[in-house]
Design a protein that fits this description.
Blueprint: H1 3-12, E1 18-21, E2 29-34, H2 41-48, E3 52-58, E4 68-73, E5 80-82, H3 86-93, E6 99-104, H4 110-115, E7 119-123, E8 135-136, E9 142-143, E10 146-151, H5 154-165, E11 176-178, E12 188-189, H6 199-211, E13 215-220, H7 231-234, H8 238-245, E14 260-266, E15 273-279, H9 282-292, H10 301-307, E16 314-316, E17 319-322, E18 325-328, H11 329-333, E19 346-348, H12 349-352
Parallel strand pairs: 2-3, 2-6, 11-12, 11-13
Antiparallel strand pairs: 1-3, 4-5, 6-10, 7-10, 7-14, 8-9, 13-15, 14-15, 16-19, 17-18
């Protein structure tokens, strides 16, 4: 999608995921930032030097850090959007932005990326010297958060990683532990602990595993396809806990609490992906990126053709009969207070329903 179309779509805000829009230029790599204070301006300033440009401030879950956003809808499933970097994921998914920047305390970047089948990456190395406000999460664990990126295009994601933490792919991926065999990767397949056990227990297990290898690789998901992946909902009783488990959020919940760097690569199935994890050292992150070269990210042709076509959201002014006069739809609606979607001679489809 070119800049003009991406900018028009941001102004239209079809998913109610945009808080503010900024003008950019054709050729800029468009960036959306989650509307939280814990993402320092220094990160965007660093990326601006290498061709990235701030395009939007993105909506987040209405409650800080909540794992679902009950105000935004996943456009593929019709379910509530995974949070809390919900708007940031949607704006990348829809082509409004090339890169999203979010923060992740317990899956808030990785899960939204997975639920709409885009790339997600988090690391404690991004702006590692920033001052953190340590908070108690819904499981009673006191932890900071990781900053992270979301993208459709792997080259753009790798550029953001390189430009922010100075890491590129290593020559070799080192020692890999995995839940199954992955083509092209030499790994030791090991039994994996239940992904849905309490977060404090899974955190300690992941720390121990990552201490024994360079990279760990597993399959995760589907995220928020069957269940409702939110501990505020799930803590009530056994029934709500099971519904929470059915959401498919397993290891993505604990990558940050284990202080791990993680990359999720979307697969063919909706809400599913390959999750690569390592300790947050530059050497191991570079090996993780090397291992990721052997895992293809799947782009669904139908989804991209449907959701990345700006004409699916906008329609040029058409002629219609109103009170026996032949006028354009834009002329008909131009004076009406309930049609703020008329922009650049285009209309949002719902406006047409009023004819």
């Amino acid at each position: 999608m070119n800049y003009r179309d991406a900018h028009r779509l941001a102004l239209l805000n079809p998913y109610h995921s945009v808080v503010k829009v900024f003008d950019c230029q054709e050729g800029d790599i468009l960036v959306g930032i989650k509307n939280v204070s814990s993402i320092p301006n220094t990160l965007m300033h660093k990326l601006e030097k290498t061709g990235f440009a701030l395009h939007t401030i993105d909506k987040k879950s209405q409650l800080a850090g909540r794992a679902v956003d009950t105000e935004l809808i996943n456009p593929i499933t019709g379910h509530y959007m995974s949070g809390s970097s919900s708007g940031t994921a949607l704006n990348v998914f829809a082509g409004i932005n090339d890169l999203g920047i979010g923060n992740d305390g317990g899956g808030s970047v990785l899960a939204p990326a997975m639920c709409v089948n885009i790339l997600g990456f988090i690391s404690r190395l991004i702006e590692e010297d920033r001052i953190q406000n340590m908070k108690k999460n819904t499981d009673g664990m006191i932890t900071g958060n990781s900053l992270g990126f979301l993208a459709r295009n792997r080259k753009i994601l790798l550029k953001a990683i390189k430009d922010s933490i100075g890491v590129e792919e290593a020559d070799d991926y080192g020692t890999v532990l995995s839940d199954r065999e992955y083509p092209g990767i030499r790994s030791e397949v090991i039994p994996i602990e239940d992904a849905f056990q309490p977060r404090n227990e899974l955190t300690e297990y992941l720390k121990d595993i990552l201490d024994r290898c360079d990279v760990m690789i597993i399959q995760e998901g589907p995220v928020d396809l069957y269940g409702f992946g939110d501990s505020l909902f799930g803590h009530f009783d056994e029934r709500t806990r099971q519904i929470q488990k059915d959401s498919g959020k397993g290891y993505v919940r604990v990558c940050n609490t284990a202080e791990a760097t993680a990359l999720v690569i979307p697969g063919k199935e909706l809400g599913c992906g390959t999750l690569l994890m390592c300790q947050s050292t530059r050497e191991k992150v570079s090996r993780l990126l090397k291992a990721a070269e052997y895992i293809e990210d799947v782009h669904d042709e139908l989804i991209e053709r449907y959701f990345l076509d700006v004409e699916s959201y906008l329609i040029k002014a058409i002629r219609c009969e109103v009170n026996d006069e032949n006028i354009s739809v834009t002329e008909h609606f131009a004076g009406r207070s309930d049609t703020e979607t008329v922009q650049d001679g285009f209309l949002h489809y719902p406006s047409l329903y009023r004819l």
